[in-house]
Automatic annotation (TrEMBL), chain A:
This is Cytoplasmic tRNA 2-thiolation protein 1. Keywords: Cytoplasm, Eye lens protein, Repeat, RNA-binding, Transferase, tRNA processing, tRNA-binding. It comes from Pleuronectes platessa (European plaice). Its main location: cytoplasm. Belongs to the TtcA family. CTU1/NCS6/ATPBD3 subfamily. Belongs to the beta/gamma-crystallin family. Pathway: tRNA modification; 5-methoxycarbonylmethyl-2-thiouridine-tRNA biosynthesis. Pfam families: ATP_bind_3 (PF01171), Crystall (PF00030), zn-ribbon_14 (PF16503). Homo/heterodimer, or complexes of higher-order. The structure of beta-crystallin oligomers seems to be stabilized through interactions between the N-terminal arms.
Automatic annotation (TrEMBL), chain B:
GO terms for cellular component: cytosol. It holds the Pfam family Urm1. Keywords: Cytoplasm, Isopeptide bond, tRNA processing, Ubl conjugation pathway. Pathway: tRNA modification; 5-methoxycarbonylmethyl-2-thiouridine-tRNA biosynthesis. It is found in: Cytoplasm. InterPro entries: Beta-grasp_dom_sf, Mopterin_synth/thiamin_S_b, Urm1. This is Ubiquitin-related modifier 1. Belongs to the URM1 family. GO terms for biological process: protein urmylation; tRNA thio-modification; tRNA wobble uridine modification. There is a cross-link at G101 (Glycyl lysine isopeptide (Gly-Lys) (interchain with K-? in acceptor proteins)).
Length: 543, 101
């Protein structure tokens, strides 16, 4: 992050210049001839506009006037569609708009003082940052004859509830009602702060309404400042943890830590919430070293720094010590086609083994909402009904000896928010793609999901919701969970996937664990030799 | 004519891999008749900085979905996205979220 740039908040007060855009249609519902405006027009008729039937504001705000040279009744337009005359006014005194000008909105603060009599005399009422639907309700029943706008841009209305004639007030002084274009000094409701659609305009935090908003939340659409975002993000994780009753006081919880963004944010937030809400948990970091030179060794350095930063104990289990194979060695033998299968299967077991060594009660992983939605899609596309049914569960129950229950406290956290949380908090995380090529199929699912999200951010939550509420009809055949005949780990076959993969590696038959060779399991278990034909099939790896 | 502007670009979260692994770039955008906006900046980046696999950075005239853009530390969704008009000394950050976590 560069430190030498100007303070963005002060700099961005300068609004953009050529952003305004309004389209006039001569008939209702955006029909007929149309005319585009990007700046003021004092006389639309001279510009060839016969009448104004409907208006589309692409970037505003704008004010329209009944008479040429910005005189007469006023109509204020913000970004949006105005298909008919009555969609922008209900005064109906006039049916012409002859002039238009864009409104410069240059302040985020809004303060205005209204006076009963001309020249700022008599009873007064001061309004700060608030819409006032009715002055009567505020105890002010007087006329409004003069106005002082200290900051912001305002619209006054003749009647309560923002009805009747409209009067635009920009920064400055209006000594009597004729100066703001009123024939009678009557204003009974007020709207504060027109919001500009200026491209370079800062937007205020919708939560504290004080600081500048720094991000738009994909889940809620809210614009928040950094502090309000941190709080909202952390509280949502806290509520997720409470609602699903993920932890009990006194438990030892292992945080699966890869050094990447998700697990770094998870470790940070778990530690923070454990302190803030006295969860009473003993937290530790648990990492797996797959033995990938130039990738995992670097990311483990990040985890080691996290260990110092968060003062949490760290346990690293390596493929090499657990299986006798590093991923580097596995890739040498199997090539770059099915290596991700080995890595995924081994990692799952490795985390369990590490967790048991550390005697943790639970493992939490950094899976975020995007990951869960992506997994739902992948299981649908692969027809994996058993996984589809359980992949949205926020926690797994213990499936047997040697399997530690897992949970996903970030299950409802969007990836965008995780990345921005890490970025704004300047958390130390590692981001490099695994050198052994990403899983191609997951990559397609991810790209598809990101495309969906860019059109409709709620897609991610909706896919999770669909996954959570799917039920599999009776009679669909499900694999029966048993235990591995060799290592005792859970398995729906005679041998668990890790043992089959390992056997394949050790015997130089890397395809053994790829594809379906279940009927060979009994043979392998009883150490019977494979036939020549079987061996040939398992060897022929075409990379 | 708009004067040339100096801006600071930063690529992170793995996006730097498409730029020879270089995270920070101080660049000067040449003078042109219209003010520079973010849409034009993306074209400029593609022509002048992007070293490989442009499809992993741009899609259509915008960034590829999954790449976050920050303008002076604020989410570009609050800043008009592609229509944002660049100013001298702006700091634009591109963070990929497409990399493993």
């Amino acid at each position: 992050m560069a430190t030498d740039h100007q303070n963005p908040a002060s700099k961005q007060q300068q609004p953009g210049t050529s952003a305004f855009k309004l389209v006039i249609y001569e008939q209702e519902n955006f029909q007929g001839r149309c005319h585009e405006l990007t700046g003021p027009s004092n006389n639309l008729q001279e510009a060839g506009v016969e009448k104004v039937g409907s208006i589309l504001v692409l970037c505003g705000p704008w004010v329209g006037y009944e008479q040429a040279s910005c005189k007469g009744e006023q109509y204020v337009f913000e970004k949006g569609e105005y298909p008919r005359w009555d969609s922008w006014t209900n005064s109906r005194r006039s049916d012409t708009i002859v002039a238009f000008r864009p409104i410069k909105v240059d302040s985020q603060e809004h303060k205005i003082v209204l006076y009963e009599n001309p020249s700022f005399a008599g009873k007064k009422i001061e309004i700060i940052d608030d819409d006032v639907p009715s002055f009567h309700a505020h105890g002010y029943q007087e006329k409004v004859s003069s106005v002082r706008v200290q900051s912001g841009t305002w619209v006054g209305y003749q009647y309560p509830g923002y009805r009747g004639y409209q009067y635009l007030f920009e920064k400055g002084e209006y000594k009597d009602s004729s100066e703001f274009g009123a024939q009678i000094p009557q204003i009974q409701s007020f709207r504060a702060g027109l919001v500009g659609d200026f491209v370079n305009m800062p937007i205020l935090c919708s939560s504290c309404a004080e600081k500048r908003a720094m991000l738009k939340r994909p889940k809620t659409g809210h614009s928040l400042c950094k502090e309000c975002f941190f709080w909202a993000f952390e509280e949502e994780v806290h509520r997720t943890i409470l609602a699903a009753n993920l932890f009990q006081p006194g438990e030892i919880v292992g945080i699966a830590a890869s050094g990447g963004k998700d697990s770094t944010v998870l470790a940070h937030v778990m530690k923070l919430l454990n302190d803030r809400y006295n969860y009473g948990l003993e937290l530790m970091l648990l990492s797996v070293d797959e033995g990938i030179t130039g990738y995992r060794d670097d990311s483990l350095e990040t985890v080691k720094r996290n260990q110092q930063q968060y003062e949490l104990p760290l346990m690293i289990v390596s493929y090499e010590e657990l299986y006798g194979w590093t991923m580097d060695a596995i890739v040498k033998q199997v090539g770059l086609k099915n290596n991700c299968t080995f890595c995924g299967v081994f990692r799952r077991q490795a985390l369990d083994r590490g967790a048991i060594m550390l005697k943790v009660d639970k493992i939490c992983t950094g899976h975020n909402a995007d990951d869960v939605a992506e997994t739902v899609l992948m299981n649908v596309m692969r027809g994996d009904i058993a996984r589809l049914r359980r992949c949205t569960a926020i926690s797994t129950v213990s499936e047997g000896d040697g399997v530690v229950p897992r949970c996903k406290p970030l299950k409802y956290a969007y990836e965008k928010e995780i990345v921005l949380y890490a970025y704004f908090k300047k958390l130390d995380y590692f981001s490099t793609e695994c050198i052994y090529s990403p899983n191609a199929y997951r990559g397609h699912a991810r790209t598809f999901l990101k495309d969906l999200e860019s059109v409709r951010p709620s897609s991610i939550m909706d896919i999770i919701h669909s996954g959570e509420n799917l039920s599999v009809r009776d009679g669909v055949k499900m694999p029966v969970q048993g235990t591995c005949g060799r290592c005792g780990y859970i398995s729906s076959q005679a041998l668990c996937k890790a043992c089959v993969l390992l056997e394949g590696l050790n015997r130089g038959l890397p395809r053994l664990g790829i594809g379906k060779h279940h009927r060979l399991h009994e043979k392998l278990l009883s150490q019977q030799p494979l036939t020549e034909k079987e061996e040939r099939k398992l060897k022929s790896v075409d990379f | 004519m708009a004067a040339p502007i100096a801006i600071h670009l930063e690529f992170g979260g793995g996006a730097e891999l498409l730029f020879n692994g270089v995270k920070e770039h101080h660049v000067t955008l040449p003078s042109q008749s219209e003010p520079w906006d973010l849409k034009q900046l993306l074209v400029w980046i593609q022509r002048n900085l992007l070293k490989e696999r442009p499809e992993l950075f741009v899609q259509g005239e915008s960034v590829r979905p999954g790449i976050l853009v920050l303008i002076n530390d604020a989410d570009w969704e609050l800043m008009g996205e592609l229509d944002y008009q660049l100013q001298d000394q702006d700091n634009i950050v591109f963070i990929s979220t497409l990399h493993g976590g």
